[in-house]
Amino acid sequence: MKLCMIGTGYVGLVSGVCFADLGNDVICIDRDIKKVEDLKKGIIPIYEPGLEELVLKNYKNKRLKFSTNLKDSIFKSDIIFICVGTPSKKNGNGADLSQIYNVAKEIRASISKFKIIITKSTVPVTTGDEIEKIISQKVSKKLFSVVSNPEFLREGEAIRDFTYPDRVVIGTTDKKSNKILKNLYLPLISKGTKYVNTSRRAAELIKYASNAFLATKITFINELANLCEKIDVNIQDISIGMGLDKRIGGRFLRAGPAYGGSCFPKDTKAIVTTADQFKINLSVIKSVIKSNENRSSLLIKRVFNILNGKVKNKKICFLGVTFKANTDDMRDSSSLLMIPSLHKMGAKINYFDPTGEKDDFKKLNNVHFSSNINFAIRESDLIIIHTEWNDFKSINFNNAVKNKKFIVFDMRNIYSPDKMKELKIKYFGVGR
Ligand code: UGA
After folding, report:
1. 44 by DSSP, 3-state: which?
2. Final residue of a structural domain among 290, 318, 342
3. How confident is the model at residue 89 (pLDDT cuts 50, 70, 90)?
4. Which domain holds residue 241?
5. Which atom of ligand 1 lies closest to the CA of 11?
6. Residue 88 per-residue DSSP state
7. Is 28 a catalytic residue?
8. How far apart are CA 156 and CA 328, in angstroms?
9. Residue 69: which residues within 8 A CB-CB, separation 6 or more?
10. H or E segment at 220?
11. Residue finishing a domain among 226, 260, 290
């Protein structure tokens, strides 16, 4: 099939490359000329394991193309995926849909035969209705169908999530579009992926509901972790004991820092805003947002207590600063709150991240990047494991740290407390 992805950010690039790998002809479009030229040379704008190899392979065999020419690419394609950003509005919590509607206007100027237009970006319920309205102002409804097909890719796991998804959700009541899209996803369906055909509005809401529910699960376990710390219970036992109940499920029950990233914080706020517009109070999600926003100050307080209130001049090392492992993404990472706060309290901070130095901390005079783990932790009073990179899972602390009184605060519960006790390392985890 002939596809075009408008927007070569995270969603558009990963989905486009994976569709090409399934045998489709895909054009990935972006208005950023440099990005498109870089992609043609095999320079990938984001860090995502496995992506570079797939781009190179499919670009070489000519199933994947990159272009800045929207009109020409739409003309050549049967299915058009809108994959542009839907960030939070500057002065509110709702999603800013200006990029989506601009693209809809550009598409309507280029339709001369039947096209399926798909929103893959995360868009509030009724956005598809609006896109349809915009396009139908200039184009006959017989020439296009607007469908919602949300993505459920996790950063760092995106290729696997695309190739082996739990489900594909297609929001359309148009039988012709449904048939074409079922065919597009057939390689995944035949491997066991569930195909869900529903209304467009339902598909839009499924995406927000899923992210809000996952954010709720994480917040739930994070709050229970706070209780576990007071009653000498290991939160991991609770996660296992609860998760084995198939109605609950064990995934997304890992306690840790506040959830972050480009999706959960933005999408939880957007769904609440949409519901408010319909005068519906999503009080559970509102509490989740609040609890998550409080979590970083709570963990800073914990650091303060671990250091017996003496933060000034303490050498603190952060291992990992991105919002999770296997990504270079800093968006809404809890380190963006924790590092400046501890810096303000007088701590001297070193950090190491496998994806390199971050601009976010360059202005803080006592925050420095180290280019390897051993160097980063060498002089530390306190080592904070902030993200769960494999690189941090078997550090020989006693060899690497020269300060004999160092403490480890493992915010991802990577290490066993018993093992750390054996090694005579003063160790704290989350919820245990
Ligand atoms: C999330 C969803 O998981 C994807 O299904 C969705 O497609 C994507 O948002 C999106 O809307 O585009 P992502 O933000 O890449 O994916 O990352 P997650 O793996 O979901 O992690 C989000 C945050 O939750 C991270 O800060 C992570 O550390 C935290 N988390 C996750 C926990 O604290 N505990 C867990 O058990 C799981």
Report:
1. coil
2. 290
3. confident
4. 208-290
5. 12
6. B
7. no
8. 9
9. 29
10. helix 200-231
11. 290
